[in-house]
Amino acid sequence: MILKRISILNYKNLEQVELSFSPKLNCFFGQNGMGKTNLLDAIYFLSFCKSSGNPIDSQNIRHDQEFFVIQGFYEAPDGTPEEIYCGMKRRQKKQFKRNKKEYNRLSDHIGFLPLVMVSPADSELIAGGSDERRRFMDVVISQYDKEYLEALIRYNKALAQRNTLLKSEVPEEMMAQAGEIVFRKREAFISEFIPIFQSFYSFISQDKEQVGLTYDSHARDASLLDVIKASRVRDQIMGYSLHGIHKDELNMLLGDFPIKREGSQGQNKTYLVALKLAQFDFLKRTGTTVPLLLLDDIFDKLDASRVEQIIKLVAGDNFGQIFITDTNWEHLDRILHKVGSDYKMFQVDQGVITEREEDEA
User: Fold this and answer.
1) Is 200 helix (H, G, I), strand (E, B) or coil?
2) Helices H, strands E: what count in the chain?
3) Buried (b) or exposed (e) across 137-176, using 16+ Cβ within 10 A?
4) Backbone phi, then psi, for 263, in 5-degree steps?
5) β-pairing, 67-75 with 2-11?
6) How confident is the model at residue 191 (pLDDT cuts 50, 70, 90)?
7) Which of 14, 95, 169, 172 has the most CB atoms lying inside 10 A of its own CB?
């Protein structure tokens, strides 16, 4: 899928933006706080029906304005045009439309525009709690597997019911049934994902370290229904559910030890970039269209050799349409020289985005 152009009104600090994009590489440069990340976030919103950073939709409306609108005009692999519209007014529900027809459920849209975003916020995958790592698995699998997304929604609904009641067995059976589906699909995903991830890490680090991923779940110990029932008395005392796939963990390893404890800043950043590029590659293999790739300030904390390896990757033919931001023009300039002619450059200043010609840059 290619994003040909975007129209934005009052999204964060972007008052009015109208841009046409290259089908290959689009570079945005400018100082921090100017709106580069907000532009990428608007593209993210069109894929996931929400912001990558702020789940409260109304807080994404520009200050002193009453609404925001994002419209994306795409082209499918067969040339079919697709228009995605998102609009929201304060104190009202957001509208999400495909070709002017509103979705009955936002979950029906997930996976239609596959997308991978690499950003500084990814550091929480290593430093944050296990919910961040579960969300990583959910975001990948939900984009290519509708059954997984439906099971995850059912599980979370049953979990909320059980936490409220903690007496009825009905939510437990619903939890276990949906949870077993989620567990099996997470386990299958991780086993296939690991070698792809390790290959990317090996390339970027030039084989300087070995990394790994392991997946832990209560559903592996026994029947999930038995595990949940066995925990009921303790759960009633605590007031919430202590066991289930909502407690799954994805262990991120440098050698045989947690990277959270052992990794340097550069190793952590390499791990995260490799993780997201592997996510892209996985979605490309499993889906019907090439995902969009958003790279937000990805070179920070990396030494020159690792920057060079990443530049080789993104400038190659394995990726589709790329949107990349950086405060350092030299990084972007080196990528552009490797890519050749198929790119566009944009300068971002105080929420105003202007296309630049090569000689202007």
Assistant:
1) helix
2) 11, 15
3) bbbbbbbbbeebbebbebbeebbebbeeebeeeebbebbb
4) -80, 145
5) antiparallel
6) very high
7) 172
Between CA 237 and CA 215 the distance in angstroms is 28
- The amino acid sitting at 200 is F
**18-24 long-range Cβ contacts below 8 angstroms, 24+ apart:** 19/346, 19/353, 19/355, 20/344, 21/321, 21/323, 21/344, 22/321, 22/342, 22/343, 22/344, 23/320, 23/321, 23/342, 24/320, 24/321, 24/322, 24/339, 24/342, 24/343
Average pLDDT over residues 24-40: 90
Q: What's phi and psi for 64, nearest 5 deg?
A: 70, 15
Long-range contacts of 229-238 (CB under 8 A, 24+ apart): 229/169, 229/172, 232/166, 232/172, 235/162, 235/166, 236/166, 236/167
Taking only the tens place, the pLDDT of each residue in 263-296 is: 999 899 999 999 999 999 999 988 778 899 999 9
Contact 42, 6 (CB under 8 A): yes
SS3 of 82, please? strand
What is the per-residue pLDDT for 310? 85
Half-sphere exposure of 264 (CA within 13 A, CB side): 8
* Cα angle value 152/126/40 (rounded, 5°): 70
Distance CA 304, CA 281 (A): 24
pLDDT band at 168 (very low <50, low <70, confident <90, very high): low
291: its two tokens: 């995902």
Cα gap 193→258, rounded to integer Å: 18
